[in-house]
Amino acid sequence: MKSAKLTAFLNYLEAQNDRVTAAALANYFKVSTRTIRNYVSTINDESPIIASNSNGYKLMMQENRNVKTASLQTQDTPSKRMNMMLKELIVNTEGLDIFDLSEKIFVSTSTIESDMMSANHLILPFHMKVKRRGNRLILEGEESEKRKLMSHIITQEASPQFLSTVSVQEIFEEYDIVQLKKIVTGILERYNLLINEYTINSILLHLVITMDRIRNNQSIEHNLHARNVKSNLEMNAAIDIADSIGAEYGIVFNEAERYYLMLLLSSKTTLLNYQSLTPDTLPNFVDKHYIDLVYTLLEKVKESYFIDLTEDEFIVKFTLHIRNLIFRARNKQWSRNPLTYSFKDTYPLIHEISVFISNELQKLENISIVEDEIAFISFHIGSFFERKKELETKILCAVVCPNYYGMQLNLVQKIETKFKDVIEIMQVDSEIDHLHHTNSIEFIISTLPMKSLHIPTIFVHPFITTEDFEQIQKLIVKLSERKNILNVKNYLEMFFDEDLFLRNIYLNSAEDYIKFMSQRLFEKHYVKEDYCDSVLEREKMSSTAFNNNVAVPHSITMDANRTGACIIINEKPVRWGEEKVQIITMIAINKTERQLFSHVFESFINILSEWENIKELTKAMDYQDFVNKITLLMDET
User: Fold this and answer.
1) Torsion sign, CA atoms 171, 177, 180, 182
2) Long-range contacts of 175-179 (CB under 8 A, 24+ apart)
3) How far apart are CA 630 and CA 637, in angstroms?
4) What is the secondary structure of 167-205 as a DSSP string?
5) Mean predicted confidence (pLDDT) in 137-155
6) Model confidence over 434-486: pLDDT tens digits?
7) What is the DSSP letter of 545?
8) How far apart are CA 96 and CA 203, in angstroms?
9) Max alpha carbon distance in the chain (Å)?
10) CB within 8 A of 142, min separation 6: which ones?
């Protein structure tokens, strides 16, 4: 059993305030309750730190938990010895006496020799080798590769959840990591370069390793040519960071060290003002090759998964990410993702799409992509779906206002503060002609007089007034009502079919209607041929006619090929057992679509249970009239 799983399990229990049932834990970790019991048994094997009773599991003393976590992370003793040996060899450039090392880590020299063979296999990707010369062990390889190896070892030994600034501080006590972070983030912000919390700590780790090596006279000396530089922003930022750190700690970064730092910044930073970028302006900041590459990847996703990711904001962010990813791959500057394992298990479809994109990218660019980078792609795709879901409930607008002495920013901030829960500002510009008139924009707020547009537009004062807010509020209510109606209509049309809407069909009995409507559903491939038998069996149990001129015949089971409804509206009532009906709705439900259909189904049945609604619906002259009437009724409920 992998220790990462057990550590994640402990971390989750630690975050809970009360006991957690085995079923809840099994659901969270996507495993069986038996596996959860095995987790607890394994962890409690040496020292009991998880209490259990009929109400579930709870973590006990924090001190014991820390001890146990440490033991779980380091239970592979040969791996621990190997990492310790490699760290000692990196620090001691002149080499180590094998007998001294043997005494230091309490193992025999033969064990060290065995570990050395394993270590050479581990460090192969770093182009290094441990060699024995007499009684001395020496690590041969480039200085830059030694630093990568040191970073790799420390990262592997750190918490699987996150390599925090606290963790880095514990490893390098002589450096003030908080102050170092302030220096780095402040300079990056000055150059409009953005770095997220997932990668800032890996940069800090790199910096302190670099500082420590320079202090021990192990600078990178060979000349490096500034190739594949994205822009001079990263180089200027690297120079400023090196100068600031040099002044703070008395450390001199030579030209090669500065270029090495620039490579790191180039692989992990993004333009801070990406929110002002659009697919149209993106070529001004990013090589067209990366933009074309992203469109190619997204087209392949659409062909294979029928998912369209070509939304403006996603394209901008994803293009910047792919450019950085390729840069990291070519320079072997990988970003570690602490949530790789949990994201893969929690969002399997998003992970599958990310793997597909990574495989295509590897073939197109002739690069290798590690699993941590696949998880970062998953973040982007997951964020796209979350964003799309959020925007479905909001009214989307654009703001037009001159950018004069902060007027534009002030206006946008006030509008967002007032209406943040109901609207989303998608575009901001100083001129109406610069807006992208897409179907997504539902209205415009402008401080400039403008000609009549096909999009609703509200004129407001530059210093927005109470009356302006009231105007905006009224339009939002109106647009929200319209949006709700359209959403209901879209749902209805997802399950209703014009070919299955019929008027004035007069048959002799309920059984005749059931046979007739079942046949129509079968011909349209909604149900299997024996569907009628199942509906008749249900009807024998109890009549599906209401006492308000409605019958809703249906099957006992949700065994339809797909969800749909056949509807008959008669001007004159017909006999249905002991009742008379004018509206007959035969509903076929597919089990996998039940949750999606439930909202429509419940609202539809509620409407059919009201006599006034029935009178209104029987007036429908055709399918479209019926859908319009029921849409309005559903929107009112």
Assistant:
1) positive
2) 175/208, 175/211, 175/249, 177/204, 177/208, 179/248
3) 11
4) HHHHH-TTS-HHHHHHHHHHHHHHTTEE--HHHHHHHHH
5) 77
6) 676 555 788 899 988 776 667 888 999 888 999 999 999 999 888 877 776 66
7) B
8) 29
9) 106
10) 127, 128
Report whether 91 contacts 83 (CB < 8 A): no
Which residue type does 341 have? Y
Element (H, E) at 151: helix 143-157
Answer yes or no: are the C-beta atoms of 545 and 581 closer than 8 Å: yes
Q: What is the dihedral of CA 299, 302, 303, 306, to 10 degrees?
A: -170
3-state helix, strand, coil split of the chain in percent (to 5) is 60, 15, 30
| Cα dihedral 296→300→306→309 (10° resolution) | -30
Tokens representing residue 7 in the block:
């550590």
**Residue (of 407, 397, 454) closest to 430 by Cα position:** 407
Name the token pair of 77: 């003793």
Q: What's the rounded Cα separation, in Å, for the pair 569 and 582?
A: 6
Q: How far apart are CA 174 and CA 216, in angstroms?
A: 14
Per-position DSSP letters for 421-437, written without gaps between them: TTEEEEEEESSGGGS--
The angle at the Cα of 552, spanning 551 to 555, to the nearest 5 degrees, equals 140
Is residue 295 scored above 90 in pLDDT?
yes
Q: Are 207 and 245 in contact (CB under 8 A)?
A: yes
Alpha-carbon span 258 to 239, nearest angstrom = 6
Q: Find tokens 């249900």 and name the residue.
A: 538
- What tokens does 433 get? 């002609």
CA distance to 84, 210, 213, 217, per residue, from 91 (Å): 11, 12, 8, 11
Q: Identity (one letter) of the amino acid at 98?
A: I
What is the DSSP secondary structure assignment for residue 334, as one 8-state letter? P
Mean pLDDT, residues 288-317 taken together: 84
What are 630's two structure tokens? 């029921």
Question: CA 307 to CA 293: how far, in whole Å?
Answer: 17
- Spatial CA neighbour of 501 closest among 630, 627, 631: 627
Q: What count of Cα atoms within 13 Å lies in the side-chain half-sphere of residue 592?
A: 2
What are the C-alpha distances in Å from 609 to residues 6, 241, 388, 556, 606? 54, 71, 35, 21, 5
Q: What is the Cα–Cα distance from 517 to 524, expressed in whole angstroms?
A: 11
Measuring CA to CA, how many Å separate 69 from each of 3, 81, 342?
Answer: 9, 18, 18
Spell out the SS3 assignment of 102-115: HHHHCCCHHHHHHH
3-state DSSP call for residue 618?
coil
CA distance 62 to 68: 10
Q: What length does the chain have? A: 637
Residue 338 has pLDDT above 60, yes or no: no
Across the strands, what pairs with 96?
137
Q: Global pTM?
A: 0.43
What tokens were used for 395? Answer: 């009214």
| Number of C-beta neighbours around residue 283 at 10 A | 11
CA atoms within 13 A on the CB side of 113: 9
Element (H, E) at 407: helix 407-419
Give me the amino acid identity at 625.
D
- Chain segment 518-550, per-residue pLDDT in tens: 999 999 889 998 899 999 988 888 888 877 788
CB 277 within 8 A of CB 291: no
Compute the distance between CA of residue 241 and CA of residue 204 in angstroms, rounded to an integer: 11
pLDDT of residue 121: 80
Show the CA angle centred on residue 33, arms to residues 31 and 35, nearest 5°: 60
Q: Is 512 within 8 Å of 519 (Cβ atoms)?
A: no
